[in-house]
User: What shape does this take?
Amino acid sequence: MSPSEPPRLRMDELQQRSLLIGGLALAVCAAGWFFSPQQFFRSYLVAYLFWIGIPLGCFAIVMLHHLVGGGWGFVIQRLLEAGIRTFPLMVLLFIPVLFGVRDLYVWARPDEVTTEAFLRQKDLYLNVPFFVTRTIIYFAVWISVGYFLNRWSLEQDRIAEGGLTQRLQSLSGPGLVLYGLTVTFASIDWIMSLEPRWYSTIYGMIFMVSFVLAAFAFVIAVAFFLSGLEPLSNAVSPDRFQDLGNLLLAFVMFWAYMAFSQFLLVWVENLAQEIPWYLHRTTGSWEWVALSLILFQFSLPFVLLLSRATKRRAGILSIVAIGILFMHWVDLFWMVTPAFYPSRFHFHWMDIIAPIGVGGIWIGVFLGQLKERSLLPLHDPRFSQTQEQGA
Amino acid sequence: MNRTPVYGLMAEFTNPEALLAGARRAYAEGFRRMDAFTPFPVEGLAEAIGFHKTGIPLIVLIGGIIGCVGGFYLQYWISVIDYPINVGGRPLNSWPSFIPVTFELTVLIAALFALFGLLALNRLPMPYHPVFNLERFELASRNRFFLCIEATDPKFDDEATRRFLESVKSQGVYQVEH
Assistant: This one.
């Protein structure tokens, strides 16, 4: 690959600036931790969940695309793969959560476990050593499967050989099953266990879907910003953005379907152990956050993405995508924060600085990974086929 | 309608690229009343003969809105107006539990509108169409590509149009009778 000089320089500059902003914001958060450690961990958890969602979604989309194919995937494949390669960074960024386990999770405080009977019953699963072990297992799965997805895809650039495509496909089937299992358990461990009395069996599905939604929104925006760069500029077209817009629409609807299904079941049952989760999130001004999710994470993008004109104009599509990404953060904030402030809406300045901090570092590393390889998979036999047909 | 004995002129092509180029030139030449026939979908062909907008999205939207409003009102009328029953102390207008049926009916009515709208816009079922009077036309479902300029087109002229169609690299030009 011989990229033209100016765009590469711009990417270097962007990377440095992003790392700088991220570093500064994290330093400010460290000061916040000094004054209010508990609030720091609460804000940091939401920020972390937002940014781990993107590589996780990338991970799922890459495997989905290896299985089903289609021209849309080759345009974003390298962006997705660069996203997967940020998993080691996410391991490092998880360390503050480990330090905050006792501040965040009620089941991790020994004095509460001895007094609360229901926590003693759940202690077999919800205890700190097992929590850490499970987290290590999730990352081991994501990093190892992600490593082979990246490695074989890169080898395919050098040698045009059909066997690698086959190998990527046979890894992706079991890989998606592992994605389903690990994300289900991770969402239970990291988020649902904040309120250990409450449980929902659809919870893991909600996160599987919303992570993929977030990743689609993210790569659509990135593909738009990079669409002038060689060789990506040869592959992007209104048709491709329409495909991606259709997938974005599908996942907006899928997210709404999952989120509503959970709400409907809890609402209809109206059981004393389940309904408080929604009561906390729909009273004390939290209801406005819930309403904004219905309007701006479902209704508005749904109506906008129905139109062919929105999907074919990359600039407008990426604005919609960034809006969805922002609302995904609001969604996580709404799911996590009422666990700590059930009676009244609460917003702390660290809730906004922490995502900027984690995000600055993450985007910096992401761009670094992106620069290392050609922006398009070169020798995938299915890719050249779709280029010729324009389908 | 005053029917001329000639329905139109049909040009035959051996590949989709030639048909596409021919269709684009016919449109540029000013012909509007024409149709193309291919054994498989050819990308860009509809646009090439000036077929940009279809009424289908609007019809489906109307069907969807009817299904959505009708589906919700169906349940609202039954459980609030016609036969109110207290179920577990829930409000009579339990809208969250109405959503699944509302959604299903939205999809169903929109799909039915799509199907019947499509048939109506294509004027199907159509027992008779003049293009089948041309014997070679059966090749349109095998390996030949056809472009037909209809006699009702204001620019249609038997001689000039025939010469034009012969000039666009077609395999042959045939007259289609009523």
